[in-house]
Amino acid sequence: MPRIAILVPGKIHERVLSALGDRFDLVAVESEETLKLDAETASRVRGAAVSGAFPGKWMDQLTKLEVIASFGVGYDAVDVKHAAEKGIIVTNTPDVLNDEVADTAVGLLLNTIRELPRAENWLREGHWKPGAAYPLSRFSLKGRHVGLYGLGRIGQEIAKRLEPFKVKISYHTRNRNPDIAYDYHPTLKGLAEAVDTLIAIVPKTPHTHKTIDAEILSALGAGGVLINIGRGWTVDEAALVSALKSGALGAAGLDVFYDEPVVPAELLSMPNVVLLPHVASASIPTRNAMAALVADNLIEWFEKGAALTPVPETPSKR
Ligand code: NAP
Ligand code: 8YV
Question: What is the pTM of this model?
Answer without folding.
Answer: 0.98
